[in-house]
Amino acid sequence: MRAASIRELLTAFREGRLTLEEAEGALGGSFDFADLDYGREARQGFPEAIYAAGKTKEETCAILKALVARSEKSILATRVSAETAAFIRGEISEAVYDSRARLLYVERPGELDEEHTVLILTAGTSDIPVAEEARQTARLCGCKVVTHYDCGVAGIHRLFAHLEDIRRASVILVCAGMEGALMSVVGGLAEAPVIGVPTSVGYGVAAGGETALRAMLASCAAGGAVVNIDKGFGAGMLAAKFVRQLRRGGMQR
Amino acid sequence: MRAASIRELLTAFREGRLTLEEAEGALGGSFDFADLDYGREARQGFPEAIYAAGKTKEETCAILKALVARSEKSILATRVSAETAAFIRGEISEAVYDSRARLLYVERPGELDEEHTVLILTAGTSDIPVAEEARQTARLCGCKVVTHYDCGVAGIHRLFAHLEDIRRASVILVCAGMEGALMSVVGGLAEAPVIGVPTSVGYGVAAGGETALRAMLASCAAGGAVVNIDKGFGAGMLAAKFVRQLRRGGMQR
Amino acid sequence: MRAASIRELLTAFREGRLTLEEAEGALGGSFDFADLDYGREARQGFPEAIYAAGKTKEETCAILKALVARSEKSILATRVSAETAAFIRGEISEAVYDSRARLLYVERPGELDEEHTVLILTAGTSDIPVAEEARQTARLCGCKVVTHYDCGVAGIHRLFAHLEDIRRASVILVCAGMEGALMSVVGGLAEAPVIGVPTSVGYGVAAGGETALRAMLASCAAGGAVVNIDKGFGAGMLAAKFVRQLRRGGMQR
Amino acid sequence: MRAASIRELLTAFREGRLTLEEAEGALGGSFDFADLDYGREARQGFPEAIYAAGKTKEETCAILKALVARSEKSILATRVSAETAAFIRGEISEAVYDSRARLLYVERPGELDEEHTVLILTAGTSDIPVAEEARQTARLCGCKVVTHYDCGVAGIHRLFAHLEDIRRASVILVCAGMEGALMSVVGGLAEAPVIGVPTSVGYGVAAGGETALRAMLASCAAGGAVVNIDKGFGAGMLAAKFVRQLRRGGMQR
Amino acid sequence: MRAASIRELLTAFREGRLTLEEAEGALGGSFDFADLDYGREARQGFPEAIYAAGKTKEETCAILKALVARSEKSILATRVSAETAAFIRGEISEAVYDSRARLLYVERPGELDEEHTVLILTAGTSDIPVAEEARQTARLCGCKVVTHYDCGVAGIHRLFAHLEDIRRASVILVCAGMEGALMSVVGGLAEAPVIGVPTSVGYGVAAGGETALRAMLASCAAGGAVVNIDKGFGAGMLAAKFVRQLRRGGMQR
Amino acid sequence: MRAASIRELLTAFREGRLTLEEAEGALGGSFDFADLDYGREARQGFPEAIYAAGKTKEETCAILKALVARSEKSILATRVSAETAAFIRGEISEAVYDSRARLLYVERPGELDEEHTVLILTAGTSDIPVAEEARQTARLCGCKVVTHYDCGVAGIHRLFAHLEDIRRASVILVCAGMEGALMSVVGGLAEAPVIGVPTSVGYGVAAGGETALRAMLASCAAGGAVVNIDKGFGAGMLAAKFVRQLRRGGMQR
Amino acid sequence: MRAASIRELLTAFREGRLTLEEAEGALGGSFDFADLDYGREARQGFPEAIYAAGKTKEETCAILKALVARSEKSILATRVSAETAAFIRGEISEAVYDSRARLLYVERPGELDEEHTVLILTAGTSDIPVAEEARQTARLCGCKVVTHYDCGVAGIHRLFAHLEDIRRASVILVCAGMEGALMSVVGGLAEAPVIGVPTSVGYGVAAGGETALRAMLASCAAGGAVVNIDKGFGAGMLAAKFVRQLRRGGMQR
Amino acid sequence: MRAASIRELLTAFREGRLTLEEAEGALGGSFDFADLDYGREARQGFPEAIYAAGKTKEETCAILKALVARSEKSILATRVSAETAAFIRGEISEAVYDSRARLLYVERPGELDEEHTVLILTAGTSDIPVAEEARQTARLCGCKVVTHYDCGVAGIHRLFAHLEDIRRASVILVCAGMEGALMSVVGGLAEAPVIGVPTSVGYGVAAGGETALRAMLASCAAGGAVVNIDKGFGAGMLAAKFVRQLRRGGMQR
After folding, report:
1. Boundaries of domain holding C244
2. Does residue B47 contact residue B74 with C-beta atoms inside 8 Å?
3. Does B240 touch chain A (CB under 8 A)?
4. Which of residues 148-207 of C touch E (CB under 8 A)?
5. What is the pLDDT of residues E83-99, one digit of tens each?
6. Which of C96, C194, E2, F8 has an alpha carbon 20 to 30 Å from G15's alpha carbon atom?
7. Residue numbers in D near B203 (CB within 8 A)
C-alpha cells in the first residue's frame, strides 16, 4: 500500500478495489509518501545514510545489513568508530571504512557527473577529516570533487594558487576552524555559491567550532551559507543536491 | 587603469605603453581585479549593493548617486530607514523605496530567468519583512520568485497546500523566527537545496533569532544551510548565485 | 513523633500526653508533614524515587534496602550505572535493571489505569533511552503508555501514521534532540497537553540538548511546556500527575 | 472545499461531483484538516488568538474584524499596545482592553467549568501582568481561575496561607522572575501538575527571565514543566487544555 | 628581613644597621608586609592553604613539608586527589585525608570558639562534599560548625525542622546545586548573614552549577551573597573571617 | 488570628477558645509567622523596603503611605525614577529623594552603631551611584559608613592611601565594574569580610557587569563573596546584618 | 609630601625633617608614587584622558577645566556626546570636538615622531569612528598615523593595494566588525605587531562585536593581540606605548 | 618559478623567456609571494612552527624532519604530548622536549638580542606551563627573557618586589587564570606595552580561562592587549615581533 500514489489510491477506490473506509484510513491515517520515496530512490542514486553515533555496533550493523539487502543504492554510515567499523567489516565483506572521515560505506555502481565540480577547501590540515566526510558523501552521490587542503588565510598565497579552480567550481565548500576567515576571502573571490563548514579545530575562544560558525555567518561576503559544526556529511549532501539541480536543469521533473 | 585585464596590462607593457615600473606597480601594488569585475557586471546583471546601516542619509545618497552615474546595473541599498529613503528620493527621482523590506533601489532593465524558481516560505506574518528583502534582492538579480507566507508548522496543512511548489522550486528559502521548525519540515520534503533564514521574531528564549538560527543549523534534515539572522539580502543573493549557475550550466564560462 | 498528624499532636496535647512546651516545640520546630506524606503514600501508588548519580553503589543500595523494608510501594532509582546495578542486584534479588533507561526498580503490585493513555513519541532512535526512562516511570505510577519511536519531522509521513494515537492520548510526551522540531508539529496537531523532553542527542550547535530545549520553549504552538534536558523521569512523573488528576476528576479529594 | 472531511471528499469523488484531478489535487495539494477544525470550534469554546506584536494596528484590527464576522467564539489578541487597543476599540465597539495583561478581547458567551480550578500564583507584584495574561486566557477558555499574588519564598508564610488552594487546584501556574524559587517550593507541596511561567522581572543576573527559566527547569521537584519567559498566554492555554481533558475524562471523544 | 615591620626597618636605618640603599631597596623593592603577616599568624590561627589542583603530587608534598617545618599553624591542601593524598601520607605521617571533601591537612592545636556557630545546610546529599570542604575549613580556623544536610525545598518540612538552628547561627552557608532555591528560603527565614555556595550537582540546564549560582545571586531575599561554584573552602574562610570579627568585636585591634 | 504566636494558639486551644478543627486548620493552613515578624520590627530598626521598578508611581506611593501610617521604622524605596520621586514628594512631605542612588526614603529616628564601620570602596566615579545605594541602605539600618571612591587598581597608590581604613573596617564593600579587579586586591589586604558589588559600568566585553561579577567570583583571594550586579541595596543590607551580629555578639538573643 | 621619592623620604627622615611616625605613616599609609607620576608627565607627552561615559556634562567639564589649569599636556575626553561637547566648548574655548570619534580634546604643543608609523586599517566604512578614536589618540601622543579605510577581505584587492604601507608600519591596528577576518589576513602579511580592534558593526550573530572579538583572538595568525570591542582609545594608547619604546630604544631610561 | 619577484617575471616576459600566456597565468593564477617568504627566512631567524594538536605522531615527525632538512632555522612544535615527543626524539636526535611547556624543538644557532627584555609574569604556579611556552618561543626568536612567577594580586607585595624589572622591560607578558586581575595592576604600573595571556586555570566561573580573558579585555588600564586563552606561543611571538621592531628601529628595512 505504501508504494501507491494518491492517484493510484483514488483509482483503486473508484474501481472498488478499496472500500470507503480503506481509502479514508490510508489517506487520513498515514499520508502515504511512498511514491515520492520510491521515485527518489530510482532517480537520484543518493546513498542511504545512517547516523551511527549513539548506536551500538550491533544496531548499526543490523540496519546496514537490512539496507544492503533491500536497496541497490550505495549505503553510508557517518561517525563510525574504528571498533564499530571492524565489527561491521567482519559481518559485511563489501563494507569499506575511511578512518579519517569516520565513514563506513558499501558502494554500488552509479552515474558520475563529470561536468560539474564540487570544490572543497580547508584552512589547515586539522580540518581534513571533516573535508573528507564531505568529499566521500558528495562522491557517493555521483559528484566530481576537487580538493585543496591547507590553504588558510595566514599565508594567503596558498589560496591564490587555486584561483582557477575557485572560478571553475559549481559549488564550493570551505572547511575551517579557529576563526574561519577563509570563508570570507573565498566568498569575495568566487562566483559559485560558497558553503561554510565550521570545524571544531582550535582551543580557548575557538570554543569547539562556535567561533568559526559565528564568524562564517557574520561574514560580510554576500551569497554564502553555513552548516552545523563538523557537519561534513550535510555539506556534501547540499553540494550534491545543488549539482543534481544542475544536471536536471533546476527542475525536479 | 583599474578596468584593464591582466592580459591587456601585459600587452601594454610589451608594446611599451607601460614602463617596467608602471607595470610592476600596477601588478604588485593593486592586484587589479577590474577585468573580472568588469566582466561580471556585463554578464551577471547583479545589482550593486550598499549596506546603509551606520551611514548618514547624506553618505548613502552620495554613494548611490555615484553608482547611478557610472553603472548601468540596478542599485540596491539595504536597511534604509524611512527618513533616509525620503531624503534620497528627493535627490534621485527614479529611486524606489520598499518600506516593509527597508530596501531602496534604482531598477535598470535586465534579463529575467523564467525557467528556474526561487521559492520563499515564511512561518508567520512577522517574518515577511525579511522574506521581502530576499525576494526583492533575488528579483533584482533576474530571478523568478514565488512566495508563500504564513505557513508555519503549528498548522501544518498550510504548508502541505504548497507541496507542488516545493517540488518545482530550484532553490527554497525558509524564513522563520521563534524555533524555526519550518526549515526541518521543508528540508524533509524538498529535493532542492533549502536555505534557512532565521528571523528575530519572538520573545524570551527566541533571543532575537538565536534559537531559530541554532535550531535550523542543528536540523536533522540533511542538505540545508543557514544564513545570518534577518539576512534576507544574503539569502536572496545566494539564491541568485544558485540560479545563475543553473543558467550557465554550473560553469563560469 | 515525625509520623504523627497535627490532629494527633493536638489531641495528645489536650489529653496531657504533651506539655505546652513539647507541643510548641514540635509545631514550631519541625512543622510535621508526616500525616500528609502518609496519606499520599496510601492513596497514590507513586513509586519512591532515588537519584543515583553522585552516590556510590553502596549508598544507593543501602537507601534502596531501607525503602524496600519500610514501604509497600514500588521503588525506582534513576541514572544507575551498569556497575551499580550489578552490585545492587547481588544484594536485592527482586531488583530489575533497565539498561537502556538506566533505571533500577523494585516493582510492587499496583492499580493500572486502563482508561487514559500517555503517548510518548521520539524524533529518532537515539532519543529512545530518555523516552524509556519516561515510559517506565509513568508505568510504575500506574499509567498505560503507548510509544512511537523514530517519527521525526525529516520524514513527516512517519508522524502522520500515528495521528489517531495523537488524538486519543490524554497527555503526550515528545522526546527529541538536535532542533526538537517534532514538538512544534505535534503541538499543532494534538488537543491534549504536550510536554517536550529535549534530549542531548546531536553535536555542534545541538549543544548537549540546549538547542532542542530552547526551540521547544520558543515553539509557536500554544499549550505546550518543557522539562529539563534528558529528564525522562520528570516527564513521566508529570504525565502520571496529569493522569492521576483525570482519575480523580481533577480534585485531590 | 476546505470544510469538507476526507470522507465527504471521497464520497463526492465516488459520486462524480469531483473529478479524479480535483480529488487528487485536494488531497495531495492541501491536506484538508477543516473537518477537524470545524469540530474543534463547535466543541471547545477556545478563543481564536492573534499575536499582535509585529503587526500594525490596522493589520491587527482587520484580522480581528474578520474573525468577529465569521466566528461565534471569543477572540483574543495578545501583546497589544495601548495605542493599538485604542484604535481597535474605535472600530470594534465590543472589544475590551486589559491594559495590565496587554490583552484585547471580544468575549462571547460560553460554558464555564465550575468543577475544576486553575490556581495562579505569583512571587511578587511585578509578575502580575504575566499572571493576568494567563488568567484571562484560561478564563476565556471557560476555566474557573483562582489567583494569589505576591507570595514569594522570601516570606514563605505568605505561601503557606494558601496551602488549601494548592491542594484543591486541578493545575497550578507559578509566575516568578528573578530566581523563580517559588516553583520549587510549590512543586514540593502540590499534587497537581505545576507549570512554571518565568517572568522577565529583575535585573543583573536575572537576565530578562533567563535565570528564572533555567532555575525552574533545573528544579529538583519532579512533575513540573515550564513555558517560555513571560508566556502567560501559553500557560493559560495549557491549563485550559488540561481542564478540557478533565471535563472530557481524558479522551478526545 | 621579611619579618621586620616598617617601624623596625626605619629604626634599623636610623641606627645605621641599614644603609640608605638597603632601606630604599627593602621599601621600594619589596614593600614589606611581614609585620602584618607575622601578627596575623600569631593571632588568628588560620591555617596555611595550598590549592593542589594543577600541581604534581611531588610539588604539593614539597610545599606541605616546607610549611610543616616553618609554621606552627595547621596546614590545609584543597582539591587533593586520592593518589596525591596517598603519596603525601607516605611522606608526612601526621597528614590526614578527608576523601569526601578532598582535603588533606596537618592539624595543630588551636583555640576553638565555642560561642558562635557556623551553620552549614545542604539541599541534597550530593552537595555534601562541598559542604564538608567548608566545614573542615571553618573548623580548622577554630569555628564551631553545625551541619544539616539534605533539607532542600522540595520537601520543605525538612528545612523547618532546623528553624531553631537557623535562628541561633552567627552565619549560615547554604550549599545547593540544580536551581539552588534553598538559599532563597533560608534568606527569608534567617537574621544572620547567608552565604550561598552553588554546587555543580545536576544535569542539563543545571550547567555545572551555573544555574544555582545565578539563581542565588538573583534571589529576591536581601542580605545574602554568593561564592564561586563548589568553593566550599572560600565559604568556610569567609565564615571564619566573620566569626573572627565577632570574637574581636568587629575591629582588627 | 495571624498575629497570635503558636504558644497563644495552643493556649487558646487548651482553654477551649479554639476547637480541635480550628487549631488544626490554623496550624496546618497558615503557619503563622506574625509573632516573629513583630519581634523583628521592634528589635532591629531595619527599614521597610520597596522595590519600585515595575510599579507605577501611584502604586509605589500608596504602599509608602500605608507603611508610613502603620510603622515607626524608616522606609526605603529603591530604583525610584525622578518622576516617581517628584510625585511621591508631593504626597508625602517627609520623603527624601537621593537622585544619584535613586533611593527615596522616610527616615525615622534610630540607634546608630558607632563602634563598627562599613567601608565602601569604588574603582571609579561611575560606580558611585551603586555605592551610594549601599551607603544609604546601611546608614538607614543604623551603621556607620566610611567611603573612598575612585581608587581602582589602574593607579594602585590611590588604594594604598586607605590601608588604615581597610584594616579598621568591620566589613568592606567593593563596588567595581569593567573587570572588577579591585576586589581581588582588597581581598588580599583586608582581614574583614569583603563583599563584591559588580556594577554595570563599562562597554563591550564588560557586558553590563557580567565580567566584573564573574571575575569577582573567580577571584583567587579567599574569604570574599559577591552580590548581584548593581545590587547596592542588597550589599548594604548584608553589611548591616553583619554589623547587627557584631552588636549582638553573634547570637540572635 | 606626595611628590617625594622613597629616597628623599628616607633622607628627610635621617636628617630629622620627618619623625619616625611621619615616615612610618607615609610609607605604610600611602605608598607614594607621585615621583613616578611627575616624571611620567614631563617625559612622555601623553595626554591626560577622561572617560566621559556615565558622567554628566557638568562633571566632565569641571574635570577638564581642572586639568587644563594644572597641566601642560594635551587633554583628551572619550565617548563624549554632542550635547556634552557643545556645553564644554561654551566653557573651554580651545576645546575641539571630533564628532565621528566622539572625542573632545585640548591640544598642546608636543613632539611628533616622524620616524615610525602607526598604520590603521578598517574593513568597512562603518568601522571608521572607532578607527578615528584610535588615530586621534595616537596622534595626540605624538605618533605619525597612516590610515586606509574600507579594505575588507570581501574584495581582497583593496587590501593588497596597501601592501607597501603594511610592510613599512611600526605597528598596525586593524578595526573590523562582523567576522573580523581582516585581522587574520593582515596578520599573515605583516611583520609588525598587529593589534585587532573589534567593532560593534553588524547584526544578528555579529552580536555587538563579540564575534569579531572572538574571531580575532582565535585567529591562526601568530603574533597578534586584541583589545576590547570599540576600544579605539586603548588601541591608540598601546600603539603609542610601542612607538615610545621605539623612540627610547626599548628601555625606560 | 615561485621564487621570482614580480619584477623578474616582468623582465622575463619582456625578454621573451615567458610567453604572454605564461606571464598571465603566473600573475593571475598564483600571486607569487615567494620572494617575500624567502627574504623573511634569511632575515628574521624566527623559528618555523608546527601546531601538533590534531596530528598523529608520525605526521608531526615527518613534517619536522622535512623542516630540519631544508631549513637552517630553529624549529618549534607546540602542544606536543609526551608520547609524541618520545617518538620524535627516537627519530630526530637533536630534538629537545620541554614537558612543562609541551614544546618540542630543534635549536639552531642564532643571534641573541641582549639589549631588550621580555618580562613574563604569572599570577600563580599553575600558570607556569603557559608562561614557559611563551618564554621558550621568545627565546628561540632571539629574545632575552626575564620571568617572575607566582606574584598574583592576592598578596600584592609579591608583585611590588619586581617593580624595577617592570620598569625596565621592553614588553611585558602577564599570564593569569581565574579573574586575571594581575594584568590590571601591571597595566597601571608599567610604561611598556602589556600583553595579557589568560590561562585556563581555575574552576566554576573561571570557565576554562573565559573569565580571565574577558576581565583582561575589560581592564580599565589603557595600553594593553590580550591573546587567546593558554596561547603562550602567540604571546611569545608577539613579544618577539615587538623586540624585532626595536632592533630594527621600527622599520622593516
Report:
1. 113-248
2. yes
3. yes
4. 198, 200
5. 999 999 999 999 999 99
6. E2
7. 53, 228-230
